[in-house]
């Protein structure tokens, strides 16, 4: 983690929840580039460089005219492909005048942008995030925009859940996590960390959701897809009922989902969700789970938020190679 | 506010003739070239006699192997740049700038028409390769004076097949622009690079087909017009000056050399900053810019001094210089 800019540009990054992008011009910084997002009249999402070709005023300060953006300074107009369609006080348009248009796709309730070579922007390369949108999984989700840490610190956080014991004691944290062995496997684009804690006392969060007394088998199967998506298959089932060999009928199962997008070298946008496949009609439970994760500074993710930003501040002040690695870090490495 | 040009060292790897007056040059930068988007051009420092100058050449491909490839036509009307480039031997040291791109190819359109005239094939060669690789629907119509002048056509045909259609004036073959445009899907884009007359014809046909102006893409370096390049004189009565513009100078360069204060930026007939008022014309104004509309050019009220010229005499103008 020593290089200043370690985000690959030829990748799809989550830029917004689909419901956030409408007919307003939404500015967002992605991979150190200013982008303006808006919805076209045909329903698709357009993403342009947020700087007018002429004097670099952010186009997000202008306004939409149909599918085109008019700059709020001198009235230049750009279409959704970034082509200039109007120049003030002349009868022609300078053929060089354009702004960059970034490939955008909507998938899994998120808007994904490709910041690198557009010729390589294959929608089939959008990371698998289907738990965020597809039945039977249900959850609300949210975003920490502008989280003040390198996006890789979030991945580091999620790929080693040992931290739950110390950061999230009282909800999902438990000494059993630190005592249990784990297995790390990987392909060229994916890493999986699998950890089973068998015959343990369930931590409070899971005990409430399971709603049954007794010991449990607990699992954490965390899957990372390069460069920045994590999906964690987590849950508990009554001990010895076969969860580890594939029968989760006596348990409860959820996925924590994270799409982490570099904003700058030292800040990121963290799109998160916690989805479940039980009590899916229970809107109160959905709200309660969202509150458990983010709750005005008191949720599980708020605790991570504090740690991650403090960690980045420490890195910024430390002249030494920032990290020593432990055995528990294999998933993140 | 224009960024200063950063020059980098490079070496001419090879130079070979493609046609009697077009050479293919391979340039190896001292730091391996990064991939280049189609439509990009390279700046090259040249010597015109004893005077240093710069020229821009479109790149033929994405430089995937780390080499910049350009094709240079030796022009009869040359101001000296193409003669210099043709005279370089392999191993020659060069200064290069960029690449930069004013002629970007947008992917994802429902169709593409590429139209090349003569040496205008160079940026469209790179675009055709990129579109072919992307599996996009496109056609490249390529016209030249004779079959022999169709540089790069054979190698290109081997790669893109019958998407390439060639036309030789000498055989009486002409591109039917209205028909080619009519065959395009709605929302398609056209990219044109060629002599002034071809670009003008393309703009007219595109407009008459009712297609949006921004979907016709073209690039101009302002090096050709409707007439041959010849010397002419320019008179500025208010400043009491009469200046000779040589065949190898632009009007803007001649005015600057004579101490007339000029405002300018792009130097390729696009931005409209170097325009002056025409008071009288002795001869014909050869408007070579893309800043003025056809209607404005017809009134002969102003001209772009960076590219436009006069044939058959001279011109009387007034400028914005009020220092006198």
Automatic annotation (TrEMBL), chain A:
<keyword id="KW-0408">Iron</keyword>
<dbReference type="InterPro" id="IPR036922">
    <property type="entry name" value="Rieske_2Fe-2S_sf"/>
</dbReference>
<keyword id="KW-0001">2Fe-2S</keyword>
<keyword id="KW-0560">Oxidoreductase</keyword>
<keyword id="KW-0479">Metal-binding</keyword>
<dbReference type="GO" id="GO:0046872">
    <property type="term" value="F:metal ion binding"/>
</dbReference>
<dbReference type="InterPro" id="IPR017941">
    <property type="entry name" value="Rieske_2Fe-2S"/>
</dbReference>
<dbReference type="GO" id="GO:0016491">
    <property type="term" value="F:oxidoreductase activity"/>
</dbReference>
<protein>
    <submittedName>
        <fullName>Rieske (2Fe-2S) protein</fullName>
    </submittedName>
</protein>
<feature type="domain" description="Rieske">
    <location>
        <begin position="12"/>
        <end position="113"/>
    </location>
</feature>
<keyword id="KW-0411">Iron-sulfur</keyword>
<dbReference type="InterPro" id="IPR050584">
    <property type="entry name" value="Cholesterol_7-desaturase"/>
</dbReference>
<dbReference type="GO" id="GO:0051537">
    <property type="term" value="F:2 iron, 2 sulfur cluster binding"/>
</dbReference>
<dbReference type="Pfam" id="PF19112">
    <property type="entry name" value="VanA_C"/>
</dbReference>
<dbReference type="Pfam" id="PF00355">
    <property type="entry name" value="Rieske"/>
</dbReference>
<dbReference type="InterPro" id="IPR044043">
    <property type="entry name" value="VanA_C_cat"/>
</dbReference>
TrEMBL record, chain B:
<dbReference type="InterPro" id="IPR006058">
    <property type="entry name" value="2Fe2S_fd_BS"/>
</dbReference>
<dbReference type="InterPro" id="IPR001041">
    <property type="entry name" value="2Fe-2S_ferredoxin-type"/>
</dbReference>
<dbReference type="Pfam" id="PF00111">
    <property type="entry name" value="Fer2"/>
</dbReference>
<dbReference type="Pfam" id="PF00175">
    <property type="entry name" value="NAD_binding_1"/>
</dbReference>
<dbReference type="InterPro" id="IPR008333">
    <property type="entry name" value="Cbr1-like_FAD-bd_dom"/>
</dbReference>
<dbReference type="InterPro" id="IPR050415">
    <property type="entry name" value="MRET"/>
</dbReference>
<feature type="domain" description="2Fe-2S ferredoxin-type">
    <location>
        <begin position="230"/>
        <end position="323"/>
    </location>
</feature>
<dbReference type="GO" id="GO:0016491">
    <property type="term" value="F:oxidoreductase activity"/>
</dbReference>
<dbReference type="InterPro" id="IPR017938">
    <property type="entry name" value="Riboflavin_synthase-like_b-brl"/>
</dbReference>
<dbReference type="InterPro" id="IPR039261">
    <property type="entry name" value="FNR_nucleotide-bd"/>
</dbReference>
<feature type="domain" description="FAD-binding FR-type">
    <location>
        <begin position="5"/>
        <end position="106"/>
    </location>
</feature>
<protein>
    <submittedName>
        <fullName>Diguanylate cyclase</fullName>
    </submittedName>
</protein>
<dbReference type="InterPro" id="IPR036010">
    <property type="entry name" value="2Fe-2S_ferredoxin-like_sf"/>
</dbReference>
<dbReference type="InterPro" id="IPR017927">
    <property type="entry name" value="FAD-bd_FR_type"/>
</dbReference>
<dbReference type="InterPro" id="IPR001433">
    <property type="entry name" value="OxRdtase_FAD/NAD-bd"/>
</dbReference>
<dbReference type="Pfam" id="PF00970">
    <property type="entry name" value="FAD_binding_6"/>
</dbReference>
<dbReference type="InterPro" id="IPR012675">
    <property type="entry name" value="Beta-grasp_dom_sf"/>
</dbReference>
<dbReference type="GO" id="GO:0051537">
    <property type="term" value="F:2 iron, 2 sulfur cluster binding"/>
</dbReference>
